[in-house]
Design a protein that fits this description.
The complex is a heterodimer of chains A (390) and B (378). Chain A is an alpha/beta fold and 390 residues long. Chain A has helices at 26-37, 52-55, 66-78, 88-104, 111-130, 172-177, 187-196, 218-225; strands at residues 17-21, 41-48, 82-86, 135-137, 142-147, 150-155, 178-179, 233-237, 243-247, 270-275, 280-284, 291-301, 312-315, 323-329, 335-343, 351-356, 359-371. Chain B folds into two domains: 4-11 and 241-364, Aspartate Aminotransferase, domain 1, CATH 3.90.1150.10; 16-238, 3-Layer(aba) Sandwich (Aspartate Aminotransferase, domain 2). In chain B, 38% of the residues lie in helices and 13% in strands. In chain B, α4 links the parallel β3 and β4 (103-105). In chain B, α2 packs parallel to α8 (226-238) and α5 runs parallel beside α6.
């Protein structure tokens, strides 16, 4: 049996009001329980983010999905106040529209980062302050470590559950207000402790990757929200310049994708780049997907930018390990990340997060990639990714 | 110090006499439809309750059809419509959602139905039923129901009024009003939850929606809720006009004290006739959702907009129909008093409002939007 950890929130006075973001899952349920056990005045807040009925294709269901009901059950179990806030309009603008627009710009969005950046650690955080709270607690698997220059963000003790990549856009000021009680636990420990505490969500299944695409069919969502999105175009071999076939819309493709390209050649082909302006999907052999460096923008530093000579680690995709890299300033406040060894599947629109040991230094959005074969031309901001054109 | 409950328009505590009547009937077995002695006893209780209500309301007892509450009564009356329906833009969802195709009668800035607009619609012909609430649940604004009833009669159109908020809080002489149907609810003025009534005028019928049992003279099937009916009647019989004067005076003092403590506070529809217990107030710049939560955390219970079953607050269609600017509508909460509300409780509420209004962090919350992000996004 797992010991129940004792929560201490640095800088939060004993008994102070603490808002817990309760999603209805086991993680935030346990976070709330630990806040209560530590003697803080816990207030549970659940955000109504999207119309559950519409998202699941079952219109007519109540505005509240199962997750909201579960969050309320847990709050009742803990005997804490619990409120549901209507964030549908915000979520639609800040996350769903951005998700669709990013795909249509030929990039691969990360809605969970957007949600953390714009909804949870921005608007919800302001709500928590407005409710007179001294802190906001979430069930994210990351660790906040009190460093000599203030709180630092570190990866979770359980590397398989680590969510630090999704939190790179958290500002230092936001981090100072946030605490993550589960950062030192494994998922199994969370479930065991939740069960020991009798939390109603202890055995609840893991949530979907993207909450508002519960069936995983993002193509259908994009086409439903932007019926004019499915502009067909050519699939072009990046090295030979040959048109290999046609596609039904660039939102169906992601850089690095191998399956479902809809072209039959003897060669094993990957999506190398997406040219939104010309509605083209560029494909090529694996070597064409290799990237030596990327340019990231909208960079958020949780620690000061490291000097160019320092070897750090970069993670350009959530499911990939961090790899050795160096960073250097680029124009317009952007940052160039140079990999020690070429990387494949670096997709514009994704996040690149920088680490030193377990600490998150910062991160940004991938704006352009430089093929390993040679340095790309200047990448137009917010336009098509810079790639070697056939 | 206990919590301060100022949400009587949502539901009001059971009056002691209603509780006694309810408990007495709960302990007696008997189905009013049964032939035997216990059945007759239950029937007697039910009919006594009906007669008590009838005497209070100025109608014949047989015109009262008990329902499971105001929502069912509204549903039932809208099922009587034989043609196009007109409803006010500020009706309760139990009217609006049961008449999705109904035309909407606009209201003025004070929330009162535009009689000229109504008359034009009626003169145009073809309307079968008009439904306008007696008093609004969010603002307390009282509609000119007598004028509307007269207008409808002149045009030969049926008229229904939802008096769920008005009953027990205003003198209701239904006989003099001349409406064809009136909706009542018990729990807003100290009766039990789960009972209401549809009162039909002398020329109005009630065709059943629930069938299969012949109860309520064939107008509403289902075993009668005798204990709730007894509580309903006892509660209405206990209402005294003095309560209304007292609540109105307390409410007016609350509004004055709030205005003194929070000068920017706005009382919605302050200058039109309102229920004696209701005050819709806006703290401009303070989101209503947060105000409700903050006040709750301080032990002061009020409401905002119309809450759905998840507790989520939606924008008020009532304030929107009154032409309130969105920022003011989004800052409006409802304070509703009960007969036992005390001066001291209201003073504590004013203090809590003032504390929240002075907190700059409350104003900041929910005002930020991500478009203001300093850094450039791809």
């Amino acid at each position: 049996m797992s010991a129940i950890p004792t929560l201490h929130l640095p800088g939060v006075p004993p008994g102070a009001r603490v808002v817990v973001a309760m999603s209805g899952g086991v993680d935030s349920s346990l976070a709330a329980a630990l806040v209560v056990r530590a003697g803080y005045e816990a207030v549970g807040v659940t955000l109504q983010l999207y119309d559950h009925g519409a998202a699941t294709g079952r219109p007519g269901t109540c505005c509240a999905g199962r997750d909201i009901r579960d969050a309320r059950r847990v709050a009742d179990h803990l005997a804490i106040p619990h409120y549901v806030l209507d964030f549908e309009a915000r979520f639609r603008r800040a996350v769903i529209d951005d998700f669709v627009d990013t795909y249509l710009a030929g990039r691969t969005p990360v809605p969970c980062v957007r949600c953390n950046q714009r909804i949870k650690f921005r608007d919800l955080l302001e709500v928590a302050r407005g409710l007179g709270a001294a802190a906001l607690v979430t069930g994210h698997y990351v660790r906040r470590v009190e460093g000599p220059e203030g709180p630092e963000l570190h990866v979770a003790a359980d590397p398989r559950k680590d969510q630090s990549w999704f939190l790179f856009a958290t500002t230092r000021e936001q981090l100072a207000f946030c605490h993550f009680p589960l950062g030192g636990l494994t998922k199994d420990e969370t479930r065991r402790i939740a069960a020991v505490l009798g939390l109603p969500t202890a055995r609840k299944a893991e949530s979907q990757d993207i909450c508002f695409v519960p069936d995983g069919d993002h193509v259908r969502l994009v086409e439903r929200l932007r019926p004019d999105a499915a502009t067909p175009g050519e699939i072009v071999h990046v090295e030979e310049g040959r048109v290999l076939g046609r596609h039904g819309g660039i939102h169906r493709y992601t850089v690095g994708q191998r399956r479902g390209l809809g072209v039959a050649t003897g060669e094993r082909l990957y999506v190398v780049a997406i040219d939104a302006r010309r509605h083209r999907v560029l494909v090529g052999p694996r070597r064409a997907t290799l990237t030596r460096a990327l340019i990231m923008e909208a960079v958020n530093w949780l620690a000061g930018p490291p000097p160019p000579e320092r070897r750090i680690e970069a993670r350009h995709r959530h499911n990939e390990p961090a790899v050795p890299a160096r960073v250097e300033p680029a124009d317009d406040g952007r940052v160039r990340v140079v990999f020690e060894a070429p990387e494949s599947g670096v997709a514009p629109g994704q996040a690149c997060v920088l680490y030193e040991g377990t600490r998150v230094l910062g991160g940004g959005w991938i704006a352009a990639v430089e093929p390993a074969g040679g340095k790309a031309g200047s990448a137009p901001t917010g336009g098509t990714p810079a790639v070697a054109q056939p | 110090m206990g919590p301060v409950y100022l949400d009587h328009n949502a539901t009001s505590p059971l009056r002691p006499v209603a509780r006694r009547a309810l408990l007495a009937a709960l302990d007696e077995v008997g189905n009013p439809s049964s032939v035997h002695a216990f059945g007759r006893r239950a029937r007697r209780r039910l009919e006594e309750a009906r007669e008590t209500l009838a005497a209070r309301l100025g109608v014949d007892a047989e015109r009262i059809v008990f329902t499971a509450g105001g929502t069912e009564a509204n549903h039932l009356v809208l099922a009587q419509a034989t043609g196009p329906v007109l409803v006010s833009a500020v009706e309760h969802p139990s009217v609006l959602e049961n008449a999705p195709d109904a035309g909407r009668i606009p209201v003025d800035h004070g929330g009162r139905v535009d009689l000229a607009a109504l008359e034009r619609r009626l003169a145009g012909g073809g309307v079968a039923l008009v439904s306008v609430m007696w008093a609004n649940n969010e603002t307390g604004v009282i509609q000119p129901v007598a004028e509307i009833a007269a207008l409808c009669r002149r045009h030969g159109v049926r008229f229904h009024t939802d008096a769920a908020q008005a009953v027990g809080r205003l003198p209701l002489d239904l006989g003099a009003l001349g409406a064809d149907w009136v909706t009542l609810s018990a729990h807003k003025f100290g009766g039990p939850v789960g009972i209401g009534a549809l009162v039909a005028g002398p020329e109005a019928e009630v065709r059943p929606v629930l069938r299969g049992g012949g109860q309520e003279r064939g107008r509403r099937a289902g075993t009668e809720n005798v204990p709730a009916a007894a509580g309903f009647a006892a509660a209405l019989a206990a209402v005294e006009a003095e309560e209304w004067r007292r609540m109105a005076a307390l409410r007016d003092r609350f509004e004055a004290a709030l205005g003194a403590a929070v000068p920017e506070a706005v009382v919605i529809a302050a200058d039109v006739p309102r229920l004696p217990n209701t005050s819709a107030v806006a703290l401009p710049g303070v989101p209503a959702e947060l105000l409700v939560i903050r006040l709750d955390l301080e032990g002061v219970m009020v409401s905002a907009g119309s809450a759905c079953s998840s507790g989520r607050v939606r924008r008020s269609h009532v304030l929107e129909a009154m032409g309130l600017p969105p920022d003011l509508a989004g800052s409006t909460v409802r304070v509703s008093l009960g007969p036992a509300t005390s001066e001291e409780e209201l003073a504590r509420a004013v203090d809590a409002f003032a504390r929240v209004a002075r907190d700059p962090l409350v104003r900041r919350a929910l005002r930020t939007t991500w478009e203001e992000e300093p850094s450039r996004a791809p």
